[in-house]
## 1
Amino acid sequence: MNLKNTFTISEKFLHRCKGKNIALVDDVMTTGATVEMASQALKAAGIKNVTVWAIARTPETSC
């Protein structure tokens, strides 16, 4: 799945959160691609640190 340029950060959000630490909550993390791209977008927009909280994680599979 290609998630490049999927996430944008609202200027209204940045005004309140730029330079701060935030938590990104995901219900179920599978490959981690979504939280990775969202975290990259947030950090590129000036968020100091992104911590990911996931309620559940799918098992890793080996090929």
## 2
Amino acid sequence: MATGTVKTYHSNHGYGVITPDDGGPELTVYYDSIIDAPGHVLTDGQKVEYDLTVQEFREVAERVRTVD
């Protein structure tokens, strides 16, 4: 699993952006990909781990879990 930091998350729109720790391009994370955060909501600056998937020719974060 890859790790990163939540750059921003818009709970009213159900998506956000993760900055990968490995310095790769920023990734989109969608509400339904968050599996352990209360209410499927992330907070800015939160550390997460995720699987990388390609959807419609772009990389997105899937199976996102918070890291303590």
## 3
Amino acid sequence: MTRQQFGFLAGFLLVAVWALGGAGIAAAATLAGLVGWVLVRVLDGAVTGPGFADRVAPDRRR
């Protein structure tokens, strides 16, 4: 599955959930999906605590 196909499928499913369950359910499904995505990235080693902290911390070199 290409990235474009995955993006289309994700968008389609989000709108389908929104239409069937309402905006609150769609927001909860989106949040759950994002949490799952971050969890998988952490388990794969693509995101680490120190690496994430470096990205969100203000640059103190100024």
